[in-house]
Every structure is written in C-alpha cells, then in structure tokens.
Write a structure and sequence with these properties.
Largest sheet: 4 strands, antiparallel
Strand content: over 45%
Helix content: under 10%
Strand order of the largest sheet: 1-28-27-26
Distance between the termini: 11 Å
Length: 399
C-alpha cells in the first residue's frame, strides 16, 4: 500500500504549486489612527524602542506605540513651539528643540523631561544626534552647531551658509557631516571641528532630504516632483526618479537599503528598488497626503498625513508564505519484510520558502537531509530529500 499512496501525494502536490513570487515588494496595511491633530507637521520613528512621535500644533509631542498605534505619552513644552525633534539612537531619550533655541531632553521610559539645554537665540530647524554626548543643530540663522549634551555648550559652529538648511546627517562612520540647503547646496563638514571640507551645487531646489541608515545614500525631493538619489561618498547623482508631477513632501530609506520610499502632494506613496534603480510599487493614501514617514524596523513603515492620520504598513520582499510545506513519502519500509528491528522511511519536503529544519517523529533517530535530485525539483520551490532508519518498538510483524 505505501507504494500506491506515494504517486497520489505527488500528483496532488503538482497541481497545488503556487506561482512564482512577484518582483514588487508586498505591502500589507496594518493600523490607522485619527489623532487630534489637523495636520501632522513632522514625525520621527525610534528603531530602538519601536515608537512613533509626531509634532502637535498645540506645542506638544505625541508618542504612539508602533505595534498597534495606541497613544503612549504626550510631552508638553510650555509656551514656545517645537521646531524639530529626534529620538536618541542608543539611549531611550528624545531631544526636542524650541523656536526660542532651547533643547529639551526627555526620558521616554520615565515619560518626563530630564534636562534642558540653553541652546542659542535662534530657532533650530534640524536636530541630529551626532553621538551619545553631542548633538548637531542647524539653525534659522543658516549655521550648524555641535552641542555638548551634558553642559549645553556649543563646541564648534560654522559660518552662515548660502540659504536655509533642509537636512543634516552624520556620515562616514561619524567622521563627517553633510548639510543640504534649500537651493541645492551640499556641504561636507569634518567632525568634530565642523570645518568645511567641500561644497557641491546640485542646481535643484530641495524641499526635503533624507539619508540612508548607513550614510551612503541621500535622497533629495524637489517642488517639481523629482527625486534625486546621491552617492554621498562620491558626491554624484546615481539616479533620478520623476514619477510624480506634484511637490515631494517626504522621503525614507528602508533599514536594509532595499527601497527608497517617496511621498508627494498627489497622495501617492511610491517605492523604488535601489538594487535596480527602478520603480517598484505605488499605493494611494486616502487621508490627505503623507507629510512624514520612516521605517521603525525592517518590515514596518509608518506615515503621518495632512489630515492628522497615522498609518502603518508591513513591507516584505515577497508575499508572506501562508501555505504549509508539502511532504511526499517515497518509501515507507518494505511491505514484504515481516520481521525486522528497523524500518527505512524516505521522502521529499517542498516549500515556497527556505526550509529551516526537518523532523520525523519529533527527531527520533538519525535523519539525513540533502538537496533533492534534479528530477525531483520543481521550479520556484525549495525541495529537500530525507532518509531515516527508524528503530521499531519490537521485533515481529509491524505496520
């Protein structure tokens, strides 16, 4: 009987094989929450703590749990409005800058303010954690300052740049900073001195800019809907994407540098494959247009909208594998063998995804697992062959 069953199992399996995985990333909507905000003007995600912070017009920062978008905390700053904020990369803190120049340090575990830095007399437009001891603050006065977190003192500063600063980032393993300005100037600064190393002109107006997590890439979004991908070290444009005809509102790299996510005033979120420099996927956001976005982990993208909604999506290279592995037995012992101390069991296991481990009867006995022979492989499936000599409980007639 075992020899008659085996062809039947194989035949059923052949007709149930799923198609090959699609090349575009798989986007799965997760959660959505309507905040009390009319518009989410700015936001940040914490990879270390899996939190999302958004800027409220009521001079406060609202923090949400990225897993389910439940409201986690609210930080009130008093009379002065907040101009920018950033999560600490290692310590569980959040830094927020006021329009009056002060910088507040919040303990996000205790949900309270633990320090206040005197800052300067100018509004901080962009705030970046340079290290656990220092912050980079780009101001309305078109300068960049390096601030000691413990004392609040300015350790170094630049002269006034040509125009307003759009973004600042630390690159090259912490040895340099890159500053992007509104009218396309890209300035490289040494750290910690902030001496100018070189300056490039992109000849394009910049509305928003972002950097990859490893500092190798930067993306600049313009008012005409164009996104330019730059190689930071080479100082050259690698790719230009022109899918949108409306202004680019925000940009984000995924944490593994697989995709660049762009959002524009047409309410469309677009994804680009960085390995191929090609368009990969797009989807529409119904609740206004996206004003802030980033990844809080390799699979979770969040976005805040112009109508005060926060949304999350899970993103994968391919759709999740929801089909169980298929087992095909090739041999279930020898039917003619009446007496024996063991029986040989062999077969094939096939799955759409990689197979981590094969166990027979909970792992009893010595199992041999190999790649299946070429004749047993099916395109698009991972196939492994297994052989097990299982000991019998007693010597005699066994079934």
């Amino acid at each position: 009987m075992p020899r008659r069953i085996a062809p039947l199992i194989l035949l059923l399996f052949v007709f149930c094989i799923p198609g090959r995985a699609q090349q575009a990333p798989y986007v799965e909507p997760r959660h959505s929450v309507q905040t009390s905000l009319t518009t989410i003007r700015a936001g940040a995600g914490s990879q270390a703590n899996q939190l999302i912070a958004v800027l409220s017009p009521e001079k406060s920062i609202k923090i949400y749990d990225a897993a389910n978008l439940s409201e986690w905390a609210t930080f009130e700053v008093g009379n002065a409005a907040i101009s920018d904020f950033v999560f600490g990369k290692r310590a569980p803190v959040l830094y927020s800058a006021r329009t009056t120049g002060q910088i507040d340090v919040w303990d996000i575990t205790k949900k309270q303010k633990i320090n206040e830095l005197s800052g300067s007399n100018t509004t901080v437009l962009s705030l970046v954690e340079e290290s656990q001891q220092r912050l980079l603050a780009a101001g309305f006065d078109k300068t960049v300052r390096l601030i000691d977190i413990a004392s609040g003192k300015t350790l170094a500063s630049t002269g006034s740049m040509q125009d307003d600063i759009r973004a600042v980032a630390v690159v090259s393993s912490g040895t340099r900073a890159v500053v992007v300005t509104e009218h396309g100037w890209i300035c490289y600064l040494s750290l910690p001195s902030l001496n100018e190393l070189k300056k490039l002109e992109s000849h394009n107006q910049t509305l928003c800019a972002t950097f990859s997590s490893d500092g190798k890439w930067m993306a600049l979004g313009g008012p005409e809907g164009t996104v330019r991908l730059w190689d930071v070290e080479a100082g050259t444009v690698r790719s230009t994407f022109e899918e949108s005809k409306r202004p680019i509102t925000t940009l984000a790299f995924d944490l593994k540098n697989r995709w660049l996510v762009t959002a524009s005033a047409d309410s469309i979120v677009r994804m680009y494959d960085l390995s191929k420099n090609t368009f990969a996927k797009s989807f529409v956001v119904q609740e206004g247009y996206v004003t802030a976005t980033s990844f809080v982990n390799p699979e979770l993208l969040w976005a805040g909208t112009s109508k005060g909604t926060i949304k999350t999506w899970r993103i994968f290279d391919t759709p999740p594998d929801t089909l169980p592995p298929v087992i095909s037995f090739v041999q279930l012992g020898e039917p003619t063998k009446v007496y024996g101390t063991s029986v040989r069991i062999s077969g094939l296991v096939r799955d759409k995804s990689n197979l981590k481990e094969i166990l027979v009867d909970g792992g009893a006995g010595t199992l041999q697992v190999t790649d299946a022979a070429e004749r047993d492989r099916i395109q698009g499936m991972v196939t492994r062959a297994f052989v097990l000599d299982a000991k019998l409980e007693k010597v005699g007639a066994n079934t």
